[in-house]
Specification:
Blueprint: E1 2-7, E2 10-15, H1 22-28, E3 47-50, E4 53-56, E5 69-71, H2 77-89, H3 99-112, H4 118-124
Parallel strand pairs: 1-5
Antiparallel strand pairs: 1-2, 3-4, 3-5
The structure holds FE2/S2 (inorganic) cluster (2 copies).
One FE2/S2 (inorganic) cluster binds at residues 36-39, 41-46, 56, 58.
Length: 134
């Protein structure tokens, strides 16, 4: 079936299978910042924004995104580079596989929360797991 979605402000018209996830479609279309980790809604690696709100694209059927706006890390390049550099400066320089999902949530948090407490930050980011470090 054909769907039209707006990805990073560009129209994406594509054919998808009824059981294809948004994660699969985005990666197939070249948005490879979106990582496939657990594939079971547990690690946060596949986080994208749907109409401005973070979702786990591994557990969201692509057909449900019809008519919606999707933002991936490629769509927030400037903020992503800034936070990526910060991670590196702070010594968070392992493989980086979990960074895109984490950055999507960090940037969302920064845009939508005013002076969040440490507890709020911890709670908000609890779903982002790093696979290669502690
Ligand atoms: S790949 Fe989606 S939550 Fe892990
Ligand atoms: S830095 Fe490697 S998975 Fe997190």
């Amino acid at each position: 079936m054909k769907i039209d979605i707006v990805v990073n402000k560009s129209l994406l018209s594509t054919h998808v299978d009824p059981d294809e996830t948004l994660l699969e479609v985005l990666r197939k279309k070249g948005y490879t910042s979106v990582k496939q980790g657990c594939d079971t809604s547990n690690c946060g690696l596949c986080t994208v924004w749907l109409d401005g709100t973070p979702i786990l694209s591994c557990s969201y059927l692509a057909v449900r995104a019809e008519g919606k706006e999707v933002t991936t890390l490629e769509g927030i390049k400037e903020e992503a580079q800034k936070f990526g550099a910060f991670l590196s400066e702070e010594g968070g320089e392992q493989c980086g596989f979990c960074s895109p999902g984490l950055i999507m949530n960090v940037v969302y948090l920064k845009k939508n929360f005013t002076n969040p407490s440490e507890d709020e930050i911890n709670t908000f980011l609890a779903g982002n797991l790093c696979r290669c470090t502690g």
